[in-house]
Amino acid sequence: MARRNAAEVLTGAVVLVVAVGFLGFAVAHSGRSSTSGYTLTAKFDRIDGLPVGADVRLAGVKVGSVLDERIDPKSYLAVVTLSVRNGLELPKDTSAAVNSESLLGGEYIALSPGGDTTMLAPGGVITITQSAISLEQLLGKFIFSVTDLVGAMKPAPGSGQPAGAPPGSANGSPNGSPGGRPPAAQPGAAPQ
User: Fold this and answer.
1) Which 3 state secondary structure label does DSSP give 85?
2) Are 166 and 174 in contact (CB under 8 A)?
3) What is the helix (H) or strand (E) element at residue 37, kind and residue range?
4) Closest CA to 91 of 112, 71, 70
5) Any bridge partners for residue 69, and if so which?
6) What is the per-residue pLDDT across 59-71, written as a single tens digit (0 to 9) for each?
């Protein structure tokens, strides 16, 4: 019985060591690097879904991360503090945009360098920003515009023709005949 207990304890210890090894590997390779860099700030109207620790990318390459988010009590704008790796100098007219990796989320800040010859100093402010686009608002606008379009195409009550059709046209055709064809000539009638 004592042998069996010792084997169980030994097996549990091995499993625990392997689990700690996997945890250490996951933390070391999680993509969150602690490399030093200089800080910049940027103000946005909205930063929906942008977490602290999100990537800062330049040309699709991670060059830093979001360090802090707060609200400016005077302007009510979101102030984002971000780090950029040392050795990467950005022009003063660099722009920052909150982008989404996919429709399911995963926000990050995309930097687009400008053409200015003056560079941003550590602690500088990125003044050209583009806020996050709310997919819910875009979807709502699309649904309402389709609803308005469908409502405009419904026939007016009692007229038998679409609401936008010109007066005097039957079935919505421009010359009063079904299908938009001119009426058939009557025998003996002079051509028009």
Assistant:
1) strand
2) yes
3) strand 37-44
4) 112
5) 80
6) 989 999 999 999 9
The domain spans of the chain are: 37-137
The answer to whether 62 and 55 are in contact (CB under 8 A) is yes
CB atoms within 10 A of CB 78: 21
User: Strand, coil or helix: what is 181?
Assistant: coil
- List beta partners, residue 65: 55, 83
Edge-first strand listing for the sheet containing 78-85: 125-126, 37-44, 78-85, 61-71, 55-58, 105-112, 95-102, 128-130
**172-184 confidence digits (pLDDT tens):** 455 555 555 555 5
Confidence of residue 7 (pLDDT cuts 50, 70, 90): confident
Task: List strand residue ranges (DSSP E) for 49-179, in order.
Answer: 55-58, 61-71, 78-85, 95-102, 105-112, 125-126, 128-130
Q: Can you give the pTM of this predicted structure?
A: 0.56
With beta carbons less than 8 A apart as the criterion, state whether 29 and 10 touch: no
Q: How far apart are CA 92 and CA 95, in angstroms?
A: 9
